[in-house]
Amino acid sequence: MSRDRVQVDSNRAPPPLTLAIEVSNPSAVDAEGGAEFDSPGGPESGADVLGPSVALARGVSIIDQEPVRGRAGRQDDDLMPAIDRLVRRAGLSARDLERVAVSIGPGGFTGVRVAVATAKAIGEAITLRSGLRACCVGVATARIAAWHHARGERAHAADTGGAFAVALASKRESAFLSLFDGTGVPLVGAVPETGAIGDASMLRSMATGDGSGSGIPRITALVCDRHLPETMRQEATRLGLLIAPLSLSAAACARVAATLSPIDPLALLPLYPREPEAVTKWRALHGPTGG
Fold it and tell me: Which domains does the chain have, with CATH numbers?
């Protein structure tokens, strides 16, 4: 995989030193999901550390990366130690950070909450030190997956280079679907830019063009992990869609974040496609007014 680089004008200030965090979907790293950890090889290795990880970057130029590996699959246990290892290895300190980017989901409830809370705390520290309020970048996880698919898996997956969908947060017979063009740019049509809960029928609309709105291309691939509902997997196969693995990395989070505007740490929030199960059960017991 080729690494993006930025040309820095000598008369301009360099892009801010950014810490990127991606721990949203550990299910992207397993035998069925298709992604495995790459070994961190430094900025010249050309390899991304796939799965839960943290990275240091200036713009789209990656300085270094570090996997996040917690006990018994609890990546949130290792998040702060991984950040410390990364920053120390780069010969820096937390005081050198100027921006923090984080994958905001959808994903594992605890992992996303811990990552966002960590990013907010680091952002507040940056604000106290520098006085700059806008120093956090929330990156929708689907955009990170789209970056990898558009620039990585596609090269050896016999994809046609057309539009594609990313499926996350699968539950029962539905998943959170986001739509992208062949370069990984979000599309608005069958779903909003941020994505929407959909099932096999929405997937069919995306693949056939039914109800997608004017000018929205039909998808040729579906990026997903092993938790995709079987009804949606069967429909994707019937429609002839390429079913591509879900790949995520902090390096890609940093690259996407370089194209987005930073926000105040107080405004940084997780992206939850569904209300919490406890809220759903409360409504069922007490009604919409809470009793």
Answer: 17-140+248-279 (3.30.420.40), 160-245 (3.30.420)
